[in-house]
Amino acid sequence: MEHLQPAMLEVADLYCRRDDRSLFSGLSFGLRPGQVLLLEGSNGSGKTTLLRILCGFREADGGEIYWSGRPAAESSYFADMAYVGHADGTKKELTVLENLRFALALSQPGQYGIDQALQKVQLSGYDDNPVQSLSAGQKRRLSLARLLITRNILWILDEPFTSLDKQGMELIETLMDDHAKNGGMVILTSHHDLTFPHLSLQRIHLDSCL
Ligand SMILES: Nc1ncnc2c1ncn2[C@@H]1O[C@H](COP(=O)(O)OP(=O)(O)OP(=O)(O)O)[C@@H](O)[C@H]1O
After folding, report:
1. Residues in domain ABC transporter (predicted)?
2. Which residues contact 59 (CB under 8 A, 6 or more apart)?
3. Is the minimum distance from the CB of 46 to ligand 1 under 6 angstroms?
């Protein structure tokens, strides 16, 4: 029955060039609640660029993005998605707690409260630490806590496993799994192999989208 459910995110015929070089063209895919899409491709193939287009940070050179059947810009798309990129998106001079409160002030509350989220990402006890005193992996965990405390449907994650230890990598897989089971969607790039036994995992290889 799954195929009868319409795609909530529909990307149609997307085209992007950079410095007179086509990065990808004719790129089309759909994503339904509960699905995870892994973007693969060699270095420089355009994975980050595609994610930045999906987040609205950059315009595509052609094509359309639809959310629930409407053009993304005319829908709740930008309120419904959350992005975690290479920069961790936190303010380094503020504490862990201040950063999360700040994120919450800009968004609707999500599934977890701040304390619960910090516990989930194993940052309990770091509430009053300035972000600049955290390790790279702890900063990455904090950016994941931000996803948990705010309401969002689509997670867009650029290399989320970077800087994480084995336990942290398993944690992300669990969080993505839980998010998908709750009807969420995830688009991510990763050079790591993923092992989601239960997830409906789609893969797109950007090297073949020229
Ligand atoms: N700020 C920029 N200005 C000009 N060109 C850029 C810029 N950022 C990326 N590019 C170019 O765009 C192309 C795609 O880069 P992108 O970062 O999207 O690739 P990627 O697939 O994410 O690579 P990686 O696997 O190395 O992270 C590359 O050729 C890169 O040189």
Report:
1. 9-210
2. 53
3. yes
- Burial class for 189, CB neighbours closer than 10 Å (0-12, 13-18, 19+): buried
How much is the ipTM here? Answer: 0.94
Query: Count of domains in the chain?
Result: 1
Structural domain boundaries enclosing 70 = 2-208
- Residue among 14, 16, 17, 18 to mutate when testing ligand 1 (max atoms within 8 A of CB): 18
- pLDDT beneath 70: ranges in the chain: 1-6, 196-200, 210
DSSP 196: -
Closest ligand 1 atom to residue 191 Cα is 25
Q: How many CB atoms lie within 10 A of CB 197?
A: 7
**SS3 sequence of 104-126:** HHCCCECCCCHHHHHHHCCCCCC
Classify 27 in phi/psi space as left (phi over 0), alpha (psi -120 to 50) or beta.
beta
Q: What is the per-residue pLDDT across 75-119, written as a single tens digit (0 to 9) for each?
A: 999 999 999 987 777 888 999 999 999 999 988 899 899 999 999
Q: Are the beta carbons of 167 and 2 closer than 8 angstroms? A: no
CATH number of the structural domain spanning residue 154: 3.40.50.300
Q: Cα–Cα distances in Å, from 55 out to 58, 81, 110, 194?
A: 8, 8, 19, 23
* C-beta of 41 in contact with ligand 1 (< 6 A): yes
For residue 44, how far is its CA from the centre of ligand 1 (angstroms)? 5
User: Count of CB atoms within 10 A of residue 21's CB?
Assistant: 10
